[in-house]
Amino acid sequence: MDRFQDGHHVRLRSRVQRTYLHATDDGESVTLSQPRASMNAAWAVHIYNGVGGDDGDSSDDGDGPYLLLHSAAYGRYLAATDRPARPGHNGLCTELRDYDQPEVEAIKWRAVESGFADEVVLLRHGEGHYLRANGKYLPWNSTGVSVDDNASSMMYWIVEPIPLREAGMPAIPGPLPAHPRFSTIFTSPGRRIRFVRALEDGYYPDEVNTWRQFWFRGRSALSLRGNLAALVVVDGPNIAMCVRAGRYGRLTPLVVDLPDGGYGGTLEIVVFLTGTLGNFTFLRGKAKPSKKVKKNKPAEELIFKEPELGTAAPEASAHEPPPEPAHETPTPTADPPAEQAVDGSENPEVPSPAKTDDPQSVDVEITRTGFAELGRPTMLAKCSAKEELMECCKATTNQLQSEISDLKNRLEAQETET
Predict the structure, then answer these.
(1) What percentage of the chain reaches a pLDDT higher than 70?
(2) Any residues with CB less than 8 A from the CB of 250 and at least 6 apart, and which?
(3) Residue 341 located in a structural domain
(4) Which helix (H) or strand (E) holds 405?
(5) Quick one: 188 and 147 in the same domain?
(6) Fewer Cβ atoms within 10 Å of its own Cβ: the N or the C terminal residue of the chain?
(7) Ramachandran category for residue 4: left, alpha or beta (phi over 0 → left; psi -120 to 50 → alpha)
(8) Residue 92 is assigned to a structural domain of this protein
(9) SS3 label, residue 238
(10) Which long-range CB contacts under 8 A does 293-301 form with residues at least 24 apart?
(11) Closest by Cα among 374, 368, 242, 373 to 304
(12) Residue 14 has what DSSP assignment?
């Protein structure tokens, strides 16, 4: 379990296939794929110590620790099932599912040493099933992922830590391509969005019966942000969205378009105001403050230790995209180094952000940010989501007018020839 630090992110690469474990775009299944520079290839580590044990801490009941992995793209947890794998694959199916009960055996894993290099592990589920790749002898069937109890070299996984960065959240994707003409005749399926606005300290009610909801069609994260901003009466660029995959699931920043699946279902979203303490807290991977904590003592920030770059696999070098010109990252003012946070020392100095030697070797970025003084406005975009949508509609209208004008010219030319 030393390779998995609570709250950090990792990639899992098959030692045989040399491809990465991916959360598929449907948000429901997992597969093996080559792209490394993808949020779908990143997995957040959630250490669970069983009933009675706090997440990330030690427990005396002997029922832990367990390793839970949830997708950095959609927030859902890697799980094993009791359904047979599809033809050509070995063992039982794997999937992505919500963490909606205190005890969900399907999402519990243990990391087992392989006997090879330190970064190579086996992921055991239950009493003897191991996560494995497929397609060793059938190259055209090499994207499947399953669990099996028959020993195989396909069960070895290389753990590639993803270093934490201070560059802020990745930008939300732009508008999706415009729909073809007359597409409104065939309405797209939608899903229920259930949401709540968090307080400035990050607190929000767990029970969804106090949350608001609306019906949303399409997959655009930009459009969803605009709708949520209108409902919470805040400019779109000044909110951050994170998805909660089940009652006990950890929050995951929503910085990709919605999954191409799960239509008719419900997506739970917690809305944070940018520049608040709660926004920085969930970026660190810390659980929200409970009612008891709010009453008895002020909330404290949990500082996670940076992973050591020297122990990462050769392919696991950190990659950081160039900063967006329209974003301003708040200047950290009181974020103590990990060593001082553990020792409980006071008045820590501000740590310097990690740097990469090669600015061109930019790849996936999993981010966190330090604490900034409240009340400092943060400008994240030059225009609101409403203006962005209006520009998109204006471009579509101009295109239609151009096509109509071209059609009229053709008709006039045909009439002249006849």
Answers:
(1) 66
(2) 44, 46, 70, 75, 244, 285, 287
(3) no
(4) helix 385-417
(5) no
(6) C
(7) beta
(8) yes
(9) helix
(10) 294/201, 294/203, 299/201, 299/202, 301/371
(11) 368
(12) E
Instruction: Name the 3-class secondary structure at 235.
Output: coil
Q: Which amino acid is at 405?
A: S
- In the chain, the number of structural domains is 2
Q: What is the pTM of this model?
A: 0.67
∠414-415-416 over CA atoms, to 5°? Answer: 90
Q: Is 103 left (phi over 0), alpha (psi -120 to 50) or beta?
A: beta
Based on the fold, state whether residues 236 and 127 are members of the same structural domain: no
What is the spatial distance between Cα 335 and Cα 322, in angstroms, rounded to a whole number? 23
- Same-domain check for residues 285 and 221: yes
Q: Are residues 18 and 147 in the same domain?
A: yes
3-class secondary structure, 144:
coil
Predicted confidence (pLDDT) per residue in 211-232, tens digit: 999 999 989 999 999 999 999 9
Please tell me the distance from the alpha carbon of residue 81 to that of residue 316, in angstroms, as a whole number: 30
Estimate the share of the chain in helix, then strand, then coil, as percent rounded to the nearest 5.
Answer: 20, 25, 55
Other C-beta atoms closer than 10 Å to the C-beta of 338 total 15
Report whether pLDDT(359) > 70. no
Whether 136 and 72 share a structural domain:
yes
Q: Which residue has the tokens 């003409």?
A: 181
Residue 196 lies in a domain: yes
CATH number of the domain to which 299 belongs: 3.10.20.90
